[in-house]
Write a structure and sequence with these properties.
Elements (H helix, E strand, L loop, with lengths): L9 E4 L10 E4 L5 E4 L5 E6 L2 E11 L7 H9 L8 H5 E11 L2 E6 L8 E3 L5 E2 L2 H8 L19 E3 L4 E4 L3 E4 L11 H20 L5 E4 L4 H9 L7 E8 L7 H21 L3 E6 L6 H11 L5 H10 L7 E4 L22 H11 L6 H15 L8 H22 L6 E4 L5 H7 L4 H5 L2 H10 L14 H16 L2 E5 L1 E6 L2 E6 L11 E5 L5 E5 L10 E7 L2 E6 L7 E3 L5 E7 L7 H5 L2 E3 L1
Parallel strand pairs: 13-14, 13-16, 14-15, 16-17
Antiparallel strand pairs: 1-3, 1-9, 2-3, 4-5, 5-6, 6-7, 7-11, 8-9, 8-10, 11-12, 18-21, 19-20, 20-27, 21-26, 22-25, 22-27, 23-24, 23-26
Organism: Macrococcoides bohemicum
Protein name: Asparagine synthetase domain-containing protein
């Protein structure tokens, strides 16, 4: 990154400008001009005094091989609203500027990869808040950008991706579409599959190098599955902090787990993959300073620098698939929201916790109301989850995430299969339980690359793990073993084995219990017979009103279990701490 050189930049203003970052000037109408950087992708359709300009790239999800010329021509002859075709059906990474009858309208891609900034008087729009700040000598209020629709400068705001702006006039909400017909879950899946087919057909015609980032999560696994038909054009990578440079023990373990999951995945499906490890301090100081100056972010400067060096000779921008938008298909809210009667208090608390935690709750409420007014967010709704989803798209994706992707603007552009308003509208209708269990992701993976469902995500096991546990639970149930609490189950020839999952540092922190109800008589016993081990472990056996406490050594003589009687069994460790050998001592057998 050249010092003080900004990439993929533009600014629209009614003032005459001379700026080294945006040297190319295009007249929009008698009052406004568009100024762009030399590296921005720019195409136009012009009809007399009217025109449509595209900054970036756009794909019609209904017409896989439709030309940019035809798309821009269609936009010129269409009224731009939440119901119009091109507002809803365009995927990509773009800002579209429409000039008709002297009026200038603009909007961005659905998730805001290219969401611009605007001044409160609606007379200046720019890709970067700093361009506006420098041009108008705006006061800098914040060092970083991470909340609602704020920029770093006074009276400069993010044009969230759900808004269309008319220069010098006003804004209009273009998402969600109030006329969208309701879809059942299977219908949503069917629509999504049509879009994926068309998008892959479009991507296959492009010359850009295609990159998919893989982590231990299900989002990137879903992206990998959807892009499978593109074959060996897809390159995968994983960037990770140097594990041994991470001080926090829990964070270090998460990174280790992620790396293990990714390693297992790439080795078993044999894909072209690169691990990129970095130290957070491993970045040129001047480079990082300039990056922060233009983006207000400090997220991945070392990776951005590595990518710039790696792809500097690419003629076309590298397309990096951003999996983060798939979070809109998950239930990233507290589990109690599933069944709680939510209110606006929950909205305020959620925004305060996620975005405005540095200020008082009362101030957060005030700023939230002002945000709703600026973004024309419909708060006259009982569907609080849908409202939270819309806020997430506009503020989290359209502002915070939008700034992160600017870090690699010199060599990259971005793509996601969900980045059109038709799809995001459909996701608002996804049943919450489907989202909670990531079933949408798993159904898509099952369609395009089923084996990927076999591999675990961070926080869950593989399908093999699930099936194995189900089989063991079934076998245990056949033996009358039910309601295990902190107990593992195993088999020893024809005997059932019950193993306590002991917390060795605090044996009494957990209860180790199991219920047994057999169809035939049986025998419960231990195999621990060392008399020196008495008074360390007891087994409490309850049946009806009867209760016995038996030492684990004495239980080696056996305890008869009668058929059709419900027994509650609890293993009790008398010492607060113990060693792993005492897990074996506390193991019970049944035959």
């Amino acid at each position: 990154m050249e010092k003080y050189k900004i990439h993929k930049a533009f600014i629209i203003s009614n003032q005459e400008l001379e700026n080294e970052h945006v040297p190319i000037k295009i007249a929009l109408n008698n009052d406004y001009h568009l100024y762009i950087s030399e590296d921005i992708i720019f195409e136009s359709y012009i009809n007399n005094e009217d025109a449509v300009h595209l900054l970036g790239y756009a794909i019609d999800i209904t017409q896989p091989n439709d030309s940019t010329f035809h798309i821009l021509k269609g936009i010129l002859h269409e009224t731009l609203s939440s119901k119009s075709h091109y507002v809803n059906m365009l995927n990509g990474s773009f800002v579209i500027i429409k000039v008709k009858d002297g009026s200038i309208e603009l909007f961005s891609d659905a998730a805001g990869f290219r969401s611009p900034y605007y001044t409160l008087d609606l007379n200046v729009v720019s890709s970067h808040d700093k361009l506006i700040g420098d041009l108008l000598n705006k006061k800098k209020k914040y060092q970083r950008i991470n909340a609602l629709d704020y920029s770093r400068y006074e009276d400069v705001y993010k044009l969230v991706p759900s808004l269309k702006l008319t220069l010098g006039s006003g804004t209009e909400r273009i998402f969600p579409n109030p006329d969208l017909i309701h879809h059942r879950y299977q219908e949503i899946l069917s629509e999504m599959k049509k879009h994926v087919k068309n998008l892959n057909a479009s991507l296959s015609e492009r010359d850009n190098k295609l990159l998919v980032g893989i982590t231990g999560g299900i989002d990137s696994k879903c992206t990998l599955a959807l892009s499978k038909s593109l074959g060996n054009r897809i390159n995968t990578f994983t960037y990770m902090k140097d594990i041994y440079g991470i001080q926090d023990k829990r964070a270090r373990q998460i990174y280790k787990n992620d790396k293990m999951i990714v390693n297992r995945l790439i080795k078993n499906i044999n894909i072209d993959h690169e691990f990129i490890e970095f130290n957070v301090n491993d970045v040129d100081e001047e480079y990082s300073k300039d990056m922060f100056e233009w983006t207000g972010t400090t997220f991945n400067h070392p990776i951005a620098e590595k990518f710039e060096k790696k792809y500097a000779k690419e003629v076309e921008d590298v397309f990096q698939f951003r999996s983060v938008i798939f979070s809109n298909a998950k239930f990233d809210y507290p589990k109690e929201y599933l069944h709680k009667n939510l209110s606006f208090q929950d909205i305020y608390e959620h925004i305060h916790h996620k975005q405005l935690q540095d200020i008082s709750f009362e101030k957060a409420i005030q700023l939230t109301h002002e945000y709703f007014e600026r973004t024309q967010t419909n708060i006259e709704t009982n569907n609080i989850i849908e409202l939270l989803d819309i806020i997430h798209i506009d503020s989290r994706m359209g502002n915070w995430h939008n700034q992160l992707v600017k870090e690699t603007d010199r060599v990259m552009d971005f793509f996601n299969y969900l980045n059109d308003r038709k799809t995001l509208n459909l996701l608002l209708h996804l049943p919450h339980e489907i989202r909670m269990y990531n079933l949408f992701h798993k159904d898509l993976i099952n369609t395009y690359w089923p084996i990927l469902n076999f591999f675990e995500d961070n926080g869950s096991g593989t399908l093999y793990d699930y099936e194995r546990n189900e089989i063991l639970h079934t076998i245990a149930a056949h033996g009358g073993i039910i309601n295990e609490t902190n107990m593992d189950f195993d088999l020893d020839e024809e005997m059932y084995v019950l193993i306590p999952k002991v917390n060795l540092k605090d044996t009494q922190k957990l209860k180790y219990k199991v219920d047994i109800k057999r169809e035939e008589d049986g025998l419960l016993f231990s195999t621990y017979t060392n008399p020196k081990g008495k008074n360390y472990i007891s087994v409490k056996i309850s049946e009806g009103n009867q209760e016995q406490l038996i030492d684990i050594v004495d239980l080696s003589n056996g305890y008869k279990l009668l058929s059709n009687k419900l027994y509650e069994i609890e293993i009790i460790y008398h010492k607060p701490t113990t060693t792993s050998s005492w897990i074996k001592a506390g193991t019970l057998y049944m035959k």
